[in-house]
Amino acid sequence: MAPPSGSSYKEALESKSIGFDYDVKMAKAEANNKPAKTSSGSIGKYGIHNSNGVYELLECLVCTNLMYPPIHQCPNGHTLCSSCKQKVQNTCPTCRYELGNIRCLALEKVAESLEVSCRYQSLGCHDIFPYYSKLKHEQHCRFRSYNCPYAGAECSVTGDIPTLVDHLKEDHKVDMHSGCTFNHRYVKSNPQEVENATWMLTVFNCFGRQFCLHFEAFQLGTAPVYMAFLRFMGDENEAKKFSYSLEVGAHGRKLTWQGIPRSIRDGHRKVRDSQDGLIIPRNMALYFSGSDKEELKLRVTGRIWREE
């Protein structure tokens, strides 16, 4: 179906363009006269600071998410995001006209003048950003949700630290301990047959923060090894305020490790594969376990302290 034609269609487009230009100039003038804001003012949907409903113009008519360049429109002015444009087979879902390749440059300019709050405002981020900086900030926001640190299964739960602590206790039945020193015994029958294994996660409450102790068996190249390491339930900058040590041994010999706990922002597999922890070759682990080598019996001790 062809779009409307004639002078009335041209006048409608010119009128819409003039209206957008006016909005852009007014928005820019207001932005230039305003000091930097905090998020204590009036906040609309999506955290956009405005009172004129501009966010509704930036909502994709198909998926209802906020739109970012390129923003597309049909000849009648109905807008949609680039992702949805690929899904609607070049047909406007509102008026059924052919979409073509029309960019809504005026709306993209309007978006440049907007200030928005971080999506993690409810978790503590109170900064505001230019509209087009919002997504980049949220990818690295220190208040963004954490993934569940449980290593025994692929868990999709996310949340802040208190939420994840409750989740680990209630849903994963993880052992919770208070204190900054630990003495754990890991046992496994037929260790020669174990190539990959993950022992139950243990969480320590130390200095009012939570630390996850991991113990795993895996192949390091062609060599079977065991590895113990600690992760911090918080971001990387906070993790650097702490250190920890691990020790394993028997028969007058021992292996020790000292390091900084990794943030749970780094997945347990990433930490494991980076070898950032106490690595125990299988032969050494079986030597520590006893002469028969029929059962793994390792005692891992350690402590956590705060760096001054």
Task: Write a structural description.
Helices cover 26% and strands 30% of the residues. It contains nine helices and 18 strands. It has helices at 7-32, 54-57, 82-87, 105-112, 134-140, 161-170, 236-239, 268-273, 282-289; strands at residues 72-73, 79-80, 102-103, 115-117, 128-130, 146-147, 158-159, 175-178, 181-189, 197-198, 202-206, 209-220, 223-232, 242-250, 253-259, 262-263, 278-281, 295-306. The strands form five sheets. Strands 8, 10, 11, 12, 13, 16 and 17 form a seven-stranded mixed sheet that branches. Strand 14 (242-250) and strand 15 form a beta hairpin. The protein is elongated, with a radius of gyration of 28 Å. Mean pLDDT is 82; it is low at 1-43.
Tally the helices: 9
Quaternary state reads single chain
From the N-terminal CA to the C-terminal CA, the straight-line distance is 72 Å
The amount of helix comes to 25-40%
* Poorly predicted runs of 5 or more residues: 1-43
Structural Rg: 28 Å
Structural class, please? alpha+beta
Query: How many beta-strand runs?
Result: 18
- Give the overall average pLDDT: 82
Overall morphology = elongated
**How are helices and strands ordered from N to C?**
HHEEHEHEEHEEHEEEEEEHEEEHEHE
